[in-house]
Specification:
Helix content is 43%, strand content 20%. The chain has helices spanning 12-29, 51-63, 87-100, 113-123, 130-141, 145-160, 163-166, 186-221, 237-245, 288-293, 295-302, 318-331, 377-391, 404-412, 435-444, and strands at residues 36-44, 66-75, 104-107, 126-129, 226-231, 262-268, 272-278, 306-312, 339-344, 355-358, 364-368, 392-399, 416-421, 427-434. The chain is globular. Keywords: Cytoplasm, GTP-binding, Magnesium, Metal-binding, Nucleotide-binding. GTPase that associates with the 50S ribosomal subunit and may have a role during protein synthesis or ribosome biogenesis.
Length: 453
């Protein structure tokens, strides 16, 4: 599926083992070919129809270089077990495939392996659900070695849950010269080989994660704040990243233009050096396997000092997009990280000038700007400065000698500025600490609050 580095190449002894696994993984990656013609199918599960869902799937198809030639919709109260979309609508889709000579059917929902197989049998062509489509786009976008490993891990996890029913041709017993053996079915062999490959990918990603953690700890010891750009896909994160750092990160008007994370230094007045991280965009119903595979990358978000939540101000579904992003942040454990809303693309809105909104405490809560023409970038830097100044706490602790473990932790994370020992042998500590980090520490050691002076 991917062009792996030489150290990833299997030995001759292993080559037979990997042939099948690569082939199975390649089945997902090669399901979508350039300029294929597709029938798009969408089910409305409520009385209020939402055409933006269909438009988003069109954009996903375009990102995968697939041409949508017809759209079929239906309304249901619940998915049908056999075809998901119902018997009559499934037959209508099959007729549309023949009429338009379509290559694939794109279903804008998550199908079970049995539903996928049943639709393929009825339509006589390949059926791709939303999860497989997103995985394919990620496979196209991956450039770094880590990104390729993460995508392959997500694909194999997705496949491993679909072998039982989706791959009926693999249930046959091995046979033929050289293949008669202990009675292991082809399906069992595939399960075993995928399990082996999953273990290898996880081990390699663990090494990459170790390096990321080392770099992160170095920044924490130097007390360098980290700003992480998060947001719905195609909200303009990479364009904003380039505007803030004068970097040349790839930015395009397409879904998931950025996959591999990028870090750059950003100097902010009265704050000093900060690290700005550009991350992958989120989307509704983001495949869980993808979130799991990218957890090491998304850790830059979970341990950030401040999240810059970039929102497309011109999108009519901006509130739903915000909620979708918040759900993913909750899933990866980043929902407690302080955030600043950044409403981008105001140049596409009427009568929305660049400005800062403040909350009841007088802290910046939202900034309106255009990363494309630079309007409001200065206001964003001003808002970041005020938020970071507010997030740095200066505390005095009086620790008894029995709290040596906590004292060691504070030293290890470089939060202690000065220390004196009182006549009673207590440790009088002067701390400078990020508010989010202080909340994390006190969550583990709630009794620390009683030692504040």
């Amino acid at each position: 599926m991917f062009d792996h580095d030489n150290d990833c190449a299997p030995s001759k002894k292993q080559s037979a083992v990997f042939d099948l696994t690569v082939g199975v993984t390649k089945d997902i990656r090669d399901q979508l070919l350039e300029n294929e013609r597709a029938i798009l199918v969408h089910v409305f599960f409520s009385q209020q129809k939402d055409p933006e869902n269909i438009e988003e799937c069109r954009q996903l198809a375009a990102s995968a270089q697939v041409e949508v030639i017809d759209v079929l919709t239906t309304s249901r109260s619940a998915p049908q077990p056999k075809y998901y979309i119902g018997q009559g609508k499934a037959e209508e889709v099959a007729e549309a495939v023949k009429l338009h000579d379509a290559d694939i059917v794109l279903v804008n929902h998550i199908l079970s392996a049995a539903q996928n197989r049943n639709l393929e049998k009825l339509c006589g062509c390949r059926v791709i659900d939303r999860t497989t489509l997103i995985l394919d786009i990620f496979a196209q976008r991956a450039r770094s070695h880590e990104g390729k490993l993460q995508v392959e891990l997500a694909q194999l996890k997705h496949l491993s849950t679909r072998l039982i029913r989706g791959w009926t041709h693999l249930e046959r017993q091995k046979g033929g010269i050289g293949l008669r053996g202990p009675g292991e079915t082809q399906l069992e062999t595939d399960r075993r080989l995928i399990k082996v490959r999953l273990g290898q990918l996880q081990a390699k990603l663990a090494k990459v994660n170790q390096q990321r953690n080392l770099n992160r700890r170095t920044r924490q010891k130097a007390e360098i704040p980290t700003l992480s750009l998060v947001g719905y896909t195609n909200a303009g994160k990479s364009t904003l990243f380039n505007a803030l750092t004068t970097a040349e990160v790839y930015a395009a008007d397409q879904l998931f233009a950025t996959l591999d994370p990028t870090l750059r230094k950003l100097n902010i007045e009265n704050v000093g050096t900060t690290i700005l991280a550009d991350t992958v965009g989120f989307i509704r119903h983001l495949p869980h396997d993808l979130v799991e595979a990218f957890k090491s990358t998304l850790q830059e978000t979970t341990e950030a000092t401040l999240l810059l939540h970039v929102i497309d101000a011109s999108d009519e579904r901006r509130q739903e997009n915000i909620e979708a992003v918040n759900l993913v942040l909750e899933e990866i454990g980043a929902d407690s990280v302080p955030s600043l809303l950044v409403f981008n693309k105001i140049d596409q809105c009427e009568n929305v000038p660049p400005h800062i909104e403040y909350d009841d405490q007088g802290k910046p809560s939202a900034v309106y700007l255009s990363a494309q023409n630079g309007a409001g970038i200065g206001l964003l830097l001003e808002a970041i400065q005020k938020r970071l100044e507010n997030e740095i706490l200066h505390l005095q602790l009086l620790l008894p000698v029995t709290e040596g473990k906590v004292r060691h932790l504070l030293y290890q994370q470089n939060h202690i500025r000065t220390e004196n020992i009182t006549e009673n042998g207590e440790f009088s500590l002067s701390l400078q600490i990020d508010n989010h980090k202080w909340q994390q520490i006190t969550a583990h050691y709630p009794h620390l609050i009683s030692y504040l002076k």
